[in-house]
Amino acid sequence: MMFLGLLGCGAVTRPSRIFPYSPGNYDFNSNTPGSCMQACSASGYAYASVSAGNLCFCGSASANTTLLNTTTTSCQVDVCTGDSNYYCGGINYELVYTSAGFIDVSFYFILLHLIYIKYNLSRQVLL
Question: Is the whole model's pTM more than 0.85, yes or no?
Answer without folding.
Answer: no
